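TASK: fixed-backbone design
INPUT:
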């Protein structure tokens, strides 16, 4: 028998169970069961109610074993054709489940949770089989109908055992009901009734209300009351007489205040900028899904090129996505684009409330916004026609998701622009080695801005040897030259930015007697001392402990506080500049929703003289009054075990140097290091990206690192160290066997199995395999097979392609 069937994926399915299942569509649901709709379906031997997503509707054969869809959750599809294809792409390319992909694409407020409801089985007659409590629950459900677990627990204080017993005796029936996490906000509006009401006699007051509504076509009840001074009862009388019609209208929770006085000033470009704009504009019209790299020195005016390009693309009615790597950069970008486009922009980042994220998503879906601005989540903005994606500071590691699905935004952006035949524009003063290599090889189109915009010039850069400072009697973390430059800037009513990429006060605490180091009991890492709360804290699991009064190993009362974090640096600067207004910007000082925006606005308004921060202060920020930039501990990242250590150090130094002297006043940057002869630091001082790239690409080729290969990291984690190692070792053996047999066409280099660089995080032991290979469908097929093993309790296997952090 043939009928319409749906290919459905199941929420919560993992491993080999994460696949499409065929369900028949009952006749009464034919009109509603569309691809992209969520459904409730029976699943497994026990026909447990599960949430599913329809990926495809087609004509298919129905047998006696074909299960039927119970209900359709959505009135209209929440996934369009592009999103369904993106879901399948994520599943096939980044080793996630279908619903991992679906959840990441939708704002959390749109997601449904299945809530268990219980009702009495009216055909049950063997009440003598029930104990006293079970009888009470059964009678309660019989008299009151279906109830949630929460209400039953509140009424009887029972545990799951009583309900499980009632279910096993078939006295009650359990039903899973989808409930949405966040509801839309609506407001009551009125309009004139389309039916004639000429025979209805109106008082003068009522006629005044009708006149106001007619002038506005429709108006909210709240506004009508405000402008006419009437009570709601008068309006309700007009509704009951058929003069007015009431309806609910959705209101949006905006994360910003739109600029009503738009400033559409003409943007004057330099010759270099014009060449870049003309080339990018041509690509945006080519209808071929191109990728371009806009490589420009810091302060070269890339944003002005963006604005002209957005003008061009949005004028065609096509959507635009503009991405920044840090939440700290969104206020600046919102201000620039809000002044030009007003409420046509929508904002996406994780510091927004669930309601705000859902409303911004809906504004784009309804065509009320044409420009999406935000961090990584903005890539999922649901434009029906997408013309342009701009990824600013494209080299930043924050564009790679650290949890499943472990996608890189750049890859999804390429997917979306290929689907829409739009343009992907990557932009940076320090492009990733992979992107610049692709640009030089012709895979991407390359556009270059080699000079700063207007009268701004690159800052003077000074290197300070901190070893010599110590020998000369300066034990402070602030060199004498940096202190002098800051003092001069403050004296001239200018500002300074100091970068120290390490938060907290001291990086570790040790015992002077026996050398004991305070370490996290949950993680293989030392605890960091925070002076703000006077506690030792773990930056991996968040554990917090008071500083011990005596050493737990030898009983000594003497501890040594070593290393410097942003809190300690703040204290030193306060001693050096007691009258200076100092702002510390790091993860500890920006815990509230609007703290980034408020602090940066205050600094831009001149309310602070010095801003200290971690890497969030190094990228993309434009403060014309900043003339001094200092870098403390510039060489720390050079000695990590990550092959990107040199690239990240060069990029961070180049970017932070670029924060100085962005207006008419020439700036100065002071780089403090214990290794001033290091070539990476020397190249960053001279802002010579091309020389850095030429050196780095040779090292990558010699050591076989991207772009000359892809890296796949497979890791196993478990609460039991032996189980974690045995699991990763089994995966290793599976890969070795497959490469020797069915997959002998795959060439690879395997490193491991070995413990991760941080072997334990949050009481989970971690072992890994690192593979250098070519990431293609054949390789991913092998990894899927190799990792498809039976796992013990509390054990997990993860796969990450080209991870940003190999920890």
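OUTPUT:
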């Amino acid at each position: 028998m043939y009928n319409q069937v749906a290919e459905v994926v199941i929420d919560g399915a993992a491993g080999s169970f994460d696949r499409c299942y065929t369900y028949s569509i009952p006749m009464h649901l034919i009109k509603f069961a569309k691809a992209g709709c969520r459904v409730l379906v029976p699943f497994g031997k026990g026909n447990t109610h599960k949430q599913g997503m329809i990926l495809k509707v087609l004509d298919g054969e129905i047998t006696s074993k074909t299960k039927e869809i119970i209900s359709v959750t959505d009135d209209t599809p929440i996934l369009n054709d592009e999103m369904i294809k993106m879901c399948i792409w994520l599943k096939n390319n980044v080793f996630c489940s279908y619903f991992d992909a679906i959840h990441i694409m939708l704002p959390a407020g749109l997601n449904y949770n299945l809530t268990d409801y219980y009702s009495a089985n009216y055909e049950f007659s063997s009440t003598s089989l029930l104990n006293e409590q079970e009888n009470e629950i059964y009678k309660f459900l019989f008299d009151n109908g279906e109830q949630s677990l929460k209400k039953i627990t509140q009424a009887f204080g029972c545990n799951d055992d009583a309900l499980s017993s009632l279910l096993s005796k078939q006295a009650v029936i359990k039903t899973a009901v989808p409930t949405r996490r966040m509801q839309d906000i609506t407001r009551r509006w009125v309009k004139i009734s389309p039916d004639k009401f000429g025979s209805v006699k109106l008082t003068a007051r009522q006629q005044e209300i009708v006149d106001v509504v007619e002038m506005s076509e429709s108006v909210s009840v709240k506004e009508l009351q405000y402008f006419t001074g009437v009570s709601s009862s008068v309006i309700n009388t007009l509704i009951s007489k058929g003069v007015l019609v009431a309806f609910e209208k959705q209101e949006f929770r905006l994360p910003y205040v739109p600029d009503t006085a738009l400033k559409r000033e003409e943007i004057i470009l330099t010759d270099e900028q014009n060449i870049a704009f003309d080339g990018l504009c041509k690509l945006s019209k080519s209808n071929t899904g191109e990728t371009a790299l806009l490589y420009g020195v810091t302060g070269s005016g890339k944003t002005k090129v963006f604005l002209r390009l957005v003008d061009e693309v949005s004028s065609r009615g096509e959507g635009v996505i503009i991405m920044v790597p840090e939440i700290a950069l969104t206020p600046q970008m919102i201000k620039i684009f809000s002044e030009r486009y007003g409420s046509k922009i929508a904002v996406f980042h994780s510091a927004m409330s669930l309601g705000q994220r859902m409303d911004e998503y809906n504004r784009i879906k309804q065509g009320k916004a044409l420009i999406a601005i935000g961090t990584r989540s903005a890539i999922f903005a649901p434009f029906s026609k997408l013309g342009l994606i701009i990824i600013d500071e494209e080299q930043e590691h924050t564009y790679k998701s650290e949890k499943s699905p472990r996608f890189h935004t750049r890859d999804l952006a390429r997917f979306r622009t290929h689907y829409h035949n739009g343009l992907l524009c990557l932009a940076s003063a320090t492009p990733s080695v992979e992107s610049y290599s692709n640009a030089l090889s012709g895979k991407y189109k390359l556009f270059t801005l080699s000079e700063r915009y207007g009268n701004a010039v690159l800052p003077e850069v000074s290197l300070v040897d901190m070893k010599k400072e110590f020998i000369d009697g300066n034990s402070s973390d602030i060199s004498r030259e940096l202190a002098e430059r800051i003092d001069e800037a403050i004296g001239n009513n200018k500002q300074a930015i100091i970068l120290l990429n390490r938060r907290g006060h001291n990086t570790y605490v040790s015992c002077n007697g026996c050398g004991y180091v305070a370490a996290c009991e949950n993680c293989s890492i030392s605890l960091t001392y925070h002076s703000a709360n006077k506690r030792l804290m773990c930056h991996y699991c968040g554990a917090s402990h008071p500083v011990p009064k005596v050493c737990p190993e030898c009983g000594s009362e003497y501890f040594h506080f070593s290393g410097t974090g942003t809190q300690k640096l703040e204290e030193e600067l306060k001693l050096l500049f007691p009258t200076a207004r100092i702002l510390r910007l790091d993860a500890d000082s920006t815990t509230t929703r609007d703290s980034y925006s408020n602090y940066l606005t205050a600094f831009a308004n001149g309310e602070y003289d010095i801003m200290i921060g971690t890497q969030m202060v190094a990228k993309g920020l434009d403060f014309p009054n900043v003339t001094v930039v200092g870098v403390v501990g510039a060489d720390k990242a050079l000695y990590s075990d990550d092959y990107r250590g040199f690239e990240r150090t060069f990029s961070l130094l180049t970017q932070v140097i670029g924060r100085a002297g962005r207006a008419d006043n020439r700036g100065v940057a002071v780089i403090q290091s214990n290794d001033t002869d290091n070539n990476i630091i020397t190249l960053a001082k001279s802002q010579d990206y091309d020389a850095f790239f030429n050196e780095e690409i040779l090292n990558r080729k010699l050591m076989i690192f991207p772009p000359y290969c892809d890296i796949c990291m497979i890791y196993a984690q478990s609460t039991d160290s032996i189980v974690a190692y045995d699991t990763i070792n089994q995966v290793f053996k599976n890969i070795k066997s497959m490469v020797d047999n069915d997959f002998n066409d795959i060439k690879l280099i395997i490193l491991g199995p070995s413990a991760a660089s941080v072997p334990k995080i949050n009481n989970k032991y971690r072992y890994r395999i690192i593979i250098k290979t070519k990431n293609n469908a054949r390789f991913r097929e092998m990894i899927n097979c190799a990792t498809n093993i039976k796992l013990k309790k509390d054990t997990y296997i993860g796969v990450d392609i080209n991870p940003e952090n190999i920890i």
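COMMENT: The chain has a mean pLDDT of 88.
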